[in-house]
Design goal:
elongated; DNA_clamp_sf; 26 strands; DNA Polymerase III, Chain A, domain 2; DNA_polIII_beta; 3 domains; 3'-5' exonuclease activity
Length: 367
C-alpha cells in the first residue's frame, strides 16, 4: 500500500470517523482505524459494534491495499503535521508516514480482523435539511435518559409526516417536543424511528456534514448518509411512550415571560439552591408579577420579582431549576416563552413558537 494525501483532508477524515472508535474495548482492533486505498480513493472505517462510520476522500494512490492503525496515535500524529502532503507506505505489519521533514513508523493490525461494515437494505428513507435537523436535535437530546434499564428513554423519537418533522425526548421527569415544517417530497408515507440521543447529536456535529442528510431504517439499524460519509447505528427497539396523553387541552394559568430576564433571574435565585434544586414560582395575575424563590437550611433564602403577562388564576409551583435551565437554554433564540399551569401538583409546560415550535413539560417537585 502506498498513497499520498493532504494533511488537512486527512485530519478532517480522521475527525469524522473518530466517534466510531471503541474507547475501552478488550479488542485492540476496535480502537483502530481501518484504512483502505484504491484507485484514487481512501476509505476510512471505525466501529465500536454499536455504531459504524465510513468516510471516503480523494488521494493519490500508487499501490492499493488496506491496514488498521491505532486511531489515537494516528490522529495525534496528523494533528502535529504541517498542512502539506503526507505519504503512507507499508501496511501489513508496519506503516511508515512521511511529511515534510517528519517520519513515523507505526505497528499495525491485520485488516482481516476488522469487522466488516454493516450491510443494510433500507425499508424507508427520508431526506431532510441538516441545519434545521441539527437545531431541533440540540433542543431535545439532553432530555434523553441516562438510565440503562429503560433504553427506550435514551432515544429521540423522529417522525416525518405531512411535511412536518417532529422530535420527542423524555426521561420520565420531563418531556421535550419540537416540530417544524419541511419539504419532504421524497416520502410517500409517514416516517418514524427512535434514534439514540447522543448518536443523533454526534452525527449532525460531524465536520463532513452536507446541506441535506438522508436517514433510512432497517429492522435493527438507523442509517445516516450524507456526502462521502455513512453512519450506521443500532435502532432502539420498543414502543415510545404515548407522550400526547400528557398534554392537557387547556390550562388554568398562562404566563408570558421574557427569556433573557427569566434566565438571568433564575441564575441569581438558584445560587442559594445548592442542596435543594427546587425553585418556587409564585404567579400573581393582579400585580403581573412572577416571584422566584429558593431556600436552603444551610445557605439562606433568595427571591426575585419578574414582570410578566398573566392570564388566568394565581398559581404556585416548584420546579427543579437544573431542568428549567435546560429549557431556557433550548429557547434562548426566542424573545419570549410561555409557561402554562394546571395546578400545583400537575406538570408545568413551557412553550415557544417560531420556525421551530418548542414544548417542554416538567414534573413539579414538592414544596
Amino acid at each position: 500500500m502506498k498513497f499520498t494525501v493532504s494533511q488537512s483532508a486527512l485530519m478532517q477524515a480522521l475527525s469524522v470517523v473518530a466517534k466510531g472508535m471503541a474507547s475501552n474495548s478488550t479488542l485492540p482492533v476496535l480502537s483502530g482505524i481501518y484504512i483502505k486505498a484504491e484507485e484514487g480513493v481512501l476509505e476510512f472505517q471505525t466501529t465500536n459494534l454499536d455504531i459504524s462510520i465510513r468516510h471516503r476522500i480523494a488521494a493519490d494512490v500508487e499501490e492499493p491495499g488496506a491496514t488498521v492503525a491505532s486511531g489515537k496515535i494516528l490522529t495525534n500524529i496528523v494533528k502535529t503535521l504541517p498542512d502539506a502532503a503526507v505519504m503512507f507506505e507499508g501496511g501489513e505489519r508496519v506503516l511508515t508516514i512521511q511529511c515534510d521533514k517528519s517520519s513515523f513508523r507505526l505497528n499495525t493490525l491485520d485488516p482481516a480482523d476488522f469487522p466488516e461494515f454493516p450491510e443494510y437494505d433500507l425499508d424507508r428513507t427520508v431526506e431532510l435539511p441538516s441545519d434545521l435537523l441539527s437545531e431541533m436535535v440540540g433542543k431535545v437530546y439532553k432530555v434523553t435518559s441516562k438510565d440503562t434499564s429503560r433504553p427506550i428513554l435514551s432515544g429521540v423519537l423522529l417522525t416525518v409526516e405531512d411535511n412536518t418533522i417532529r422530535l420527542v425526548a423524555t426521561d420520565s421527569y420531563r418531556l421535550a417536543v419540537c416540530d417544524s415544517n419541511v419539504e419532504t417530497s421524497s416520502i410517500q408515507e409517514a416516517f418514524e424511528t427512535i434514534v439514540p440521543g447522543n448518536t443523533f447529536h454526534d452525527v449532525l456535529s460531524l465536520p463532513s456534514m452536507t446541506e441535506r442528510i438522508t436517514i433510512g431504517t432497517t429492522n435493527s439499524q438507523v442509517v445516516f448518509a450524507f456526502g462521502d460519509t455513512t453512519y450506521v447505528s443500532r435502532k432502539i427497539d420498543g414502543t415510545f411512550p404515548n407522550y400526547k396523553q400528557l398534554l392537557p387541552p387547556s390550562c388554568n394559568t398562562s404566563v408570558r415571560i421574557d427569556v433573557a430576564q427569566f434566565s438571568a433571574a433564575l441564575k441569581r435565585v438558584s445560587v442559594i439552591a445548592l442542596t435543594n434544586p427546587s425553585v418556587r414560582f409564585d404567579i400573581d395575575p393582579d400585580g403581573k408579577i412572577m416571584k422566584l424563590s429558593a431556600s436552603s437550611p444551610d445557605q439562606g433564602e433568595s427571591t426575585e420579582l419578574l414582570p410578566v403577562e398573566v392570564e388566568g388564576n394565581a398559581m404556585t409551583i416548584a420546579l427543579n431549576y437544573h431542568y428549567v435551565f435546560d429549557c431556557v437554554n433550548a429557547a434562548n433564540d426566542q424573545k419570549e416563552i410561555t409557561l402554562e399551569l394546571q395546578s400545583t401538583m400537575q406538570p408545568g409546560i413551557f412553550k415557544s413558537y417560531s420556525k421551530i415550535n418548542y414544548l417542554y413539560l416538567l414534573m413539579p417537585v414538592r414544596m
